[in-house]
Input
Amino acid sequence: MSDNSYLKIAEAGLRPSVQRTAIYEYLYEHPVHPTVDMIYTALSPEYPTLSKTTVYNTLKAFADHGLVQSIQIEEDKVRYDADIRPHLHFKCIRCGSVYDVFAPENSRGIQNAHSKCCTFLPEGFITQKIQTNIWGICASCSVVPADMEQPHAEN
Amino acid sequence: MSDNSYLKIAEAGLRPSVQRTAIYEYLYEHPVHPTVDMIYTALSPEYPTLSKTTVYNTLKAFADHGLVQSIQIEEDKVRYDADIRPHLHFKCIRCGSVYDVFAPENSRGIQNAHSKCCTFLPEGFITQKIQTNIWGICASCSVVPADMEQPHAEN
DNA sequence: GTGCTTGCAAATCGTTTGCAATAGC
DNA sequence: GCTATTGCAAACGATTTGCAAGCAC
Output
């Protein structure tokens, strides 16, 4: 996978430094939509000199070059996703987890729904990115009565 | 309209204080998805003792009671919308404006697209709120060549 | 050696919190 | 009078900025 990350970063037109490769690899292998802080904390032990600034810069560069997508489903922080296939995100307001939602059969369903949405745009509007977020209660949490609610697993 | 705001707030189960009524009214009459800061700055002259904390508290209370919706289309700050009919939001990455996008004929199209999206959720997931954001170039900006780009009109 | 990248420290800014003063039933 | 609401000041936390040192072609 290391080679693959290296190549993908290079293909996107960015210099595949050690830090960038590590960050992309982590994001790719941990599809839980980590935040900058989660990535930094996870990689720090292996890369002691890694700076949070670099994580910020790197993820922004990745997003600008279409290598990853940034997800605005939290009120305060940004999450990142190395999976750039069309899919939705679901945030459980009880446990705080963010789930991927794919349509059966090659994501066609979500693409269709999104294309439909774009037809409502007035003349002259150009779409670059479209994102659908759903908030609610996930399956694990919906079986637990609300008054037995566990502490939020935010972050 | 003042009476109407008062009633709507009361119906939502909140005490319609002077501040709350003013904030709701401003939001209702300025459908440009203002931020907390924009509302605070706009109302400050008329209500010199108004505090930003009150604007934060009020909007959060409104959102919790379904009177307004919070929009997470910015990376840093939250925007608010007094229009709670189903609609999409489009953010122009050039001028920074956030537009409402309605479907023709009573929003049925957007509701359908959103319902479709919810069918992709696994068993046991309960939807409470769904939001679609589109980023791109708006009609006013798309007629201007990129190198003649105006300064961003953020905030 | 030139330009891109890194990383530290400080600054910024949206938002929250603690708490005392105030207003409305 | 009691409770919800307000508003000030301070704290907080995610992100950005300035800038000097390091790295890669």
